[in-house]
Write a structure and sequence with these properties.
The chain is of the alpha+beta class. It has two domains: about 5-250, Nucleotidyltransferase, domain 5 (2-Layer Sandwich), CATH 3.30.420.40; about 300-420 and about 465-495, Nucleotidyltransferase, domain 5 (2-Layer Sandwich). It has 17 helices and 24 strands. The strands form eight sheets. The protein has a seven-stranded mixed beta sheet with strand order 18-19-17-16-22-23-24. The chain has a five-stranded mixed beta sheet with strand order 3-2-1-5-15, sandwiched between helices. A two-stranded antiparallel ribbon has the order 4-7. Strand 2 and strand 3 form a beta hairpin. Helix 2 packs across helix 3 (about 120-125). Bound molecules: adenosine-5'-diphosphate and 5-O-phosphono-D-xylulose (5SP). Adenosine-5'-diphosphate binds near residues 261 and 402. GO terms for molecular function: D-xylulokinase activity. Belongs to the FGGY kinase family. Its EC number is 2.7.1.17.
């Protein structure tokens, strides 16, 4: 039986799975790694640690009793987007990867919009300059770390660094490349205009493939080191949001995913290119040929819950603290959480935005705060959903670590006033990467053919109208908070 490996290089951990040709997961393995925060607004990770941990997961998969390594027909890669890995001419990382949630590039974003012009930037890349994207990070290194900049030979996205270590090839694919701000998203290739305007050498960037295309073959030293057969094809794969959408069967226009990972994302697949541009929504290529997507991204979704659990209930499971929150009424008895713990991207592109608990009283216990966090993240996602009014959203599927919990899924359905479905796999991006591997190296005709065979929707949460009434009133209050508090957030920044 043919087997496919899917790897998702997430922000909190790398998750790798083996899927057989019927879509069943035969083995999985994951390893966590730290998120480095060397200065306020800076978020980094060490690419060598990514590679070490990824290798450990692959080795564990191969040693699994249900996996015969000689049956592995292909590998697909997925990972956190926008992170920027700078390599020297020997392929060695020159600096920690600067991540998607890093906010140090505000000045560089202003520079890009001035230099290229907002209209021309949007026309060419489909996007405004946002601090998480890769191009401003390249300019930041030029300005602030000239000793590194002069040694740069290649710039890669996170999962593409793993590809380089697996195959020795410098390659990327359209969905992740969209998040660099250097891709002509409509034409699905690098933009010479943007590269020239920003003075970024084309040779630094890898070649761009479609997501299911084979980009290289595994190197022979890996056979000895971790038992991975030499010459196994590695396909393009996808940025974690596009791969997560594929892994949830979202491969045609009008179907959406909501991802509750470290970040929180509303993703709507589209068969057409963009007609109306919405300021902080992203317009990127989908990991499916001739498809695109719009996406709203909040920076701290399940990360808000993780933060709260770590400081208030570290010994307890997510299930326990969410169960406790389920006993609190919708609306958290007047407590409101603003989820801007690491600044925000959609709908407020503001590195200095901050978290906030509004309405605290002596009556509020831990469970109220937990519930307010689940609801606040839901309101933040609703901001993005409301902006996607140029497409009819026929269905929403949830993915990401936070979606394992049915209480949170129900809260989302109640806030959005839309049914929320789960699918038969909860490995989102890793599963999507395996689907793309099956198309590129397993003889399947199309992504849709595989997802139709492998993915079904399961449980569906219908909105509870009494809860929705409460949430629609509180959402109006939520929407006012950012502008009321913006000045305070910026003032407080001086004391960090
Ligand atoms: N059982 C659970 N219930 C609710 N949230 C969970 C649960 N397990 C993990 N999480 C949340 O999911 C997040 C990790 O999600 P994941 O999609 O793996 O993120 P990433 O891809 O960013 O590494 C953690 O921050 C945690 O808050
Ligand atoms: O910045 C984005 C998408 O634009 C994030 O979604 C990252 O891709 C990280 O995702 P997770 O680690 O939360 O899955």
């Amino acid at each position: 039986m043919s087997l496919f490996i899917g790897i998702d290089l997430g922000t909190s951990s790398v998750k790798s799975i083996v899927v057989d040709e019927t879509g069943s997961i035969c083995a999985n393995s994951s390893r966590e790694y730290p998120l480095l925060n060397p200065q306020p607004l800076w978020y980094e990770q060490d690419p060598e640690i990514w590679w070490k941990k990824t290798k450990e997961t692959i080795q564990e998969l191969i040693q699994h009793p249900e996996v015969d390594a000689s049956d592995i027909k292909g590998i697909g890669l997925s990972g956190q987007m926008h992170g920027t890995v700078f390599l020297d001419k020997n392929g060695k990382p020159l600096y920690n990867a600067i991540l998607w949630c890093d906010q140090r590039t505000e000045q560089e974003c202003e520079y890009i919009e001035q230099k290229v012009g907002i209209q021309s930037l949007v026309e060419e890349s489909g996007n405004r300059a946002l601090t998480g994207f890769s191009a401003p990070k390249i300019l930041w290194v030029k300005q602030n770390k000239p000793e590194i900049y002069e040694k740069v030979d290649k710039v890669l996205l996170p999962k593409d660094y793993i590809r380089y270590r697996l195959t020795g090839e410098f390659a990327t694919e359209v969905s992740d490349a969209s998040g660099t701000l250097l891709l002509q998203v409509k034409k699905r290739n690098w933009s010479n205009h943007l590269l020239e305007s920003l003075n970024i050498p084309r040779e630094w960037l890898p070649n761009v493939y479609e997501s299911q295309e084979v980009t290289g073959y595994t190197l022979s030293y890996l056979q000895k080191e971790i038992g991975l057969p030499a010459g196994t094809p590695v396909v393009g794969g996808g940025g974690d949001q596009a791969a997560g959408a594929v892994g949830s069967g979202v491969v045609e226009g009008g179907i959406a995913t909501v991802a509750l990972g470290t970040s929180g994302v509303v993703f709507v697949a589209r068969d057409d290119t963009l007609k109306t541009f919405q300021h902080t929504l992203h317009f990127f290529c989908h990991a499916v040929p001739d498809q695109w997507h719009t996406m709203g991204v909040m920076l701290s979704a399940a990360a808000s819950l993780k933060w709260w659990k770590e400081i208030s209930a570290n010994q307890e499971s997510y299930e326990t603290i969410l169960q406790e929150a389920d006993h609190v009424r919708a609306g958290s008895e007047g407590l409101l959480f603003l989820p801007y713990l690491v600044g925000e991207r959609t709908p407020h592109p503001d590195p200095q935005a901050k978290g906030q608990l509004v309405g605290l009283t002596l009556a509020h216990q831990r469970a109220h705060i937990t519930r307010a966090i689940l609801e606040g993240v839901g309101f933040g996602l609703n901001d993005s959903l409301q902006m996607m009014n140029d497409v009819e959203i026929k269905e929403i599927r949830v993915t990401g670590g936070g979606s394992k919990n049915k209480i949170w899924r129900q809260i989302l359905a109640d806030i959005f006033n839309k049914p929320i479905a789960t699918v038969n796999t909860n490995e989102g991006p890793a599963y999507g990467a395996a689907v793309l591997a099956a198309v590129g190296s397993g003889g399947f005709a199309s992504v849709k053919q595989v997802t139709d065979q492998w993915i079904q929707t399961l449980e569906c949460h219908e909105p509870i109208q009494t809860h929705h009434q409460v949430y629609s009133e509180i959402y109006q209050i939520y929407k006012e908070q950012y502008s009321l508090l913006k000045h305070t957030f910026h003032q407080l920044d001086a004391f960090r």
